Amino acid sequence: MQRPYNFSAGPAAMPVEVLQQAAADMLDWHGSGMSVMEMSHRGKEFMSIIETAEADLRELLAVPPNFRILFMQGGGLAENAIVPLNLSRGGVVDFVVTGSWSQKSFREARKFCDPHLAASNEADAHTSLPTPGSWQLSQDAQYVHLCSNETIHGVELHELPDLKALGSNAPLVIDFSSHVASRTVDWRRVGLAFGGAQKNLGPAGVTLVVVREDLLGHALSICPSAFDYKTVADNGSMYNTPPTYSIYMAGLTFQWLKRQTEGDLRGIAAMEHRNRAKAELLYGFIDQSSFYVNKVAPACRSRMNVPFFLRDESRNEAFLTGARAAGLLQLKGHKSVGGMRASLYNAMPLEGVQALVAYMRDFEQTQA
User: Fold this and answer.
1) CATH 3.90.1150.10 residue spans of the chain
2) 199 is catalytic
């Protein structure tokens, strides 16, 4: 029996193979006599889990050796405070605001530093992206913050900016929560990347931070010890009890990602190829339809989060009711923008997008 297709923006669908493996391990992980939830985080069993997870993630994302991988807690929202506590030195920080999540980052940073709005797309309702050449960067910025994929508004920066070419020596900080592991990362242009796991990497509970080593050790005196990146790094993400089960589930997801292939492509390259195909299918259908509309400029449309609207919004509830009956779940848009949203994360197969397009076509025909 086919499981329903879950288009939730997060916590999101997970690969069936991962869920099946977790179910098989639930009462007894690898003959240990314990569930992962019952293990000491410092015992040899869990140490093997976290060490394997870190090694697999480093391989998948091609993380250079001069970056540290941290498994933290608090989600992306907490990182909006933790990043300036660690990197701002209480000085100027440049922000590129491109939607709801970067707006939250900008506002939170006011508590810890002097945030400067370098660019914003608010004037066009977050439906396009300001070109890097138009950013008003500060000469003395401690870092530049951007959200490289905005989950709510559905805009994605498909190429990370080269800050040095823009005249800035500041490190780039990216919130890649909603498209991590969906595409490759150019680490030459990044100083720190963070993201909650609950979209592409596993269940809610663990937050990934990938930080260049030279950025460690500069936390403000008011930074809690458990949030000091250097303390976390020096203790192998074990300064406080880590979210053990979420790390285990993320580790299973990393192994699943390593097994993925598309022709000669493997791992993240295979996922990027697959994600392009899924997004092109859905956007292509919406663009040819007179019944649905996507308002985002084509050049910056997200491959992960596709917001769309019925031109006659009085039919929204009927659309959602029919979708649920067809096994297409969690398509209601975020409350701040309305409409619909289909999240096409790594675990969503092409068949799920094909089923969505078929339903959208049938619904349009029945409403004509």
Assistant:
1) 262-367
2) yes
State the catalytic residue, choosing from 135, 175, 228, 278.
Answer: 175
Output the pTM of the full model. 0.96
Mean pLDDT of 139-165: 96
Identify the active-site residue in 56, 135, 199, 228. 199
Identify the architecture of domain 17-258 in CATH. 3-Layer(aba) Sandwich (3.40)
> 175 an active-site residue?
yes
Given 29, 56, 94, 101, which residue is catalytic?
A: 101
pLDDT, one tens digit per residue, over 10-61 is 999 999 999 999 999 999 999 999 999 999 999 999 999 999 999 999 999 9
Contact 12, 200 (CB under 8 A): yes
Does domain 262-367 sit in CATH 3.30.70.3040?
Answer: no
pLDDT at residue 285 is higher than 80: yes
**Active site annotation includes 124:** no
| Pairing mode of beta strands 305-310, 328-329 | unpaired
